[in-house]
Amino acid sequence: MDSAALMYASGMGFNQFGMVAAKDYFFENEKRKNSLPLLMNLIPADRKSNRQTIARLMAACREFLQPGDRAIIIYPEGTRSLNGEMAPLKKGPAMIASELNIPIVPAYMHGTFASLPKFGKFPKPRRINVYFGEPIHPQRLAKRDETIRLIYTELTTELAKRIRALYDQHHGR
């Protein structure tokens, strides 16, 4: 549901989006692998990363973006929230954005957890709002003498800050 809300709010066509998805959950489960990848542009990501799995993920993202006018949805927390609160962010979005030299567009969604919490079966009718922040351009944030790990950390920190600002802005804080 979160992906559909993001895609709809963006105004872009659903087929213009790829979604980074856990390989073990979406591609190694018989029921899911025979249905969901056919309905959505899923990009498999191994949960255990090493040089090979990262290289495969980068190649798959690059291939999806190749035709142009496309975007990739990456959930920076790595999973859906158990309580509706933002969890610490993973560095995956920063790594992909840096390596592919693409911007990160921060987004905050309100109402998706109330409508369909993690492990929920059917969505409840709830109003869902999606708010987008200004893009973060990795090459503008990075400094020439920084290590790649520091760049990923700074991008991840900036992304968390901007998502939190969207939350505060739309909750009167």
Quick summary of this structure?
This protein has 173 residues and is of the alpha/beta class. 44% of the residues lie in helices and 13% in strands. The strands form two sheets. The protein has a three-stranded parallel β-sheet, with helices on both faces.
Q: Any idea how many domains?
A: 2
The geometry reads as globular
Order of strands, widest sheet: 2-1-3
Number of strands: 5
Helix content: 40-55%
Strand residue percentage: 5-15%
Specify the biggest β-sheet.
Answer: 3 strands, parallel
- N-to-C order of helices and strands: HEHHHEHEHEHEHH
Judged by helices, strands and strand pairing, the structural class is alpha/beta
Q: What Rg do the Cα atoms give?
A: 16 Å
The number of helical segments is 9
Q: Any low-confidence stretches, pLDDT <50, length ≥5?
A: none
The oligomeric status of these chains comes to single chain
Overall average residue pLDDT? 91
- C-alpha end-to-end distance: 27 Å
Describe the protein in words:
- Keywords: Acyltransferase, Lipid biosynthesis, Lipid metabolism, Phospholipid biosynthesis, Phospholipid metabolism, Transferase.
- One of its GO terms (biological process) is phosphatidic acid biosynthetic process.
- It holds the Pfam family Acyltransferase.
- This is Phospholipid/glycerol acyltransferase domain-containing protein.
- GO terms for molecular function: 1-acylglycerol-3-phosphate O-acyltransferase activity.
- The protein is an alpha/beta fold and 173 residues long.
- It folds into two domains: 73 residues, no CATH class; 96 residues, no CATH class.
- Helices cover 44% and strands 13% of the residues.
- It has nine helices and five strands.
- The strands form two sheets. It has a three-stranded parallel beta sheet with strand order 2-1-3, with helices on both faces. Strands 4-5 form a two-stranded antiparallel sheet.
